[in-house]
Amino acid sequence: MPQSILVTGGTKGIGRAIVERFAREGYDIYTCARNAAGLEAMKQELLAQFPSIQVFTMKADLSKMDEVKAFAAAVKELTTPDILVNNTGVFLPGSIHNEPEGNLEFMMQTNLFSAYHLTRAFAEDMITRKSGHIFSIGSIAGITAYANGGSYAISKWAMLGFTKCLRQELKEFNIRVTSILPGATYTASWEGVELPVDRFMKAEDVAEAVWAAYNLSAYSVVEEMIIRPQLGDI
Question: Superkingdom of the source (predicted)?
């Protein structure tokens, strides 16, 4: 039976790189994003390159609870994935004391609550099956405070805490849980910044880290992986 991976926010950046890395290995793909056209274009590209895999896509805004649950229900009708990658995230710069009202709520809903509820949707089936691997794509901002990080940093610190708790809860059921904590990665979030591209990490390097962590033997787990640009944080 083909193995499968669910990646939220799979059309761009780190999510897209992870999707392509696992598709290349023959994994069926389940993903969502807010842009239906982008999802369809990606699906056709993947099927053209890897005709043996299945690709399920669904338009969903994971800042909205009803759409998180609708996406989870749609996937559950088909499968419980072998791998769940909670990748969806949004960054709005600002300082806690004066950032726009609603920044905290929006980023917590998108960056943390979506991961929490998707994980709950699939965890019981993984427990029954006694297998699975859950990845959280966090951020250096979840371990290092910095100016102008505001509510984004709060949400990523919370994401790391969520993942640490999950690791302790699920280890006895043979389910591995991993936090990936990337530094500045060249994605659409950094477009327009006046820095050379080679100052950033490649999204493909983060995808390779996920692939490597997943491919350890059943006797080991990468609990946390910090990945930074070679020249340090930006």
Answer: Bacteria
Query: Can you read off the two tokens belonging to residue 194?
Result: 């006046």
Query: Do β-strands 83-86 and 4-8 pair in parallel, antiparallel, or remain unpaired?
Result: parallel
Distance CA 147, CA 127 (A): 40
Structure-derived torsion over alpha carbons of residues 21, 37, 155, 131, reported in degrees to the nearest 10: -40
Q: What is the pLDDT of residues 32-80, one digit of tens each?
A: 999 999 999 999 999 999 999 999 999 999 999 999 999 999 999 999 9
3-state secondary structure of 111: helix
Q: Which of 204, 92, 81 lies closest to 155, judged by CA?
A: 92
In angstroms, rounded to a whole number, what is the distance separating the alpha carbons of residues 137 and 106?
18
173, with CB counted inside 10 A (0-12, 13-18, 19+), is middle
Element (H, E) at 156: helix 150-170
Instruction: Give, in degrees to the nearest 5, the angle at Cα 115 between 185 and 108.
Output: 80
Taking the C-alpha atoms of residue 166 and residue 158, their distance in angstroms, rounded to an integer, is 12
Q: E strands within the chain?
A: 4-8, 28-33, 55-59, 83-86, 132-137, 175-182, 224-227
- Our measurement of the distance from residue 84's CA atom to the centroid of its chain's CA atoms, rounded to an integer in Å, reads 8
Distant-in-sequence contacts of 98-102, Cβ < 8 A, 24+ apart? 99/150, 99/151
Query: In this structure, is the dihedral angle defined by the CA atoms of residues 217, 210, 5 and 84, taken in order, positive or negative?
Result: positive
Strand order across the 4-8 sheet: 55-59, 28-33, 4-8, 83-86, 132-137, 175-182, 224-227
Domains with residue ranges and CATH for the chain: 4-227 (3.40.50.720)
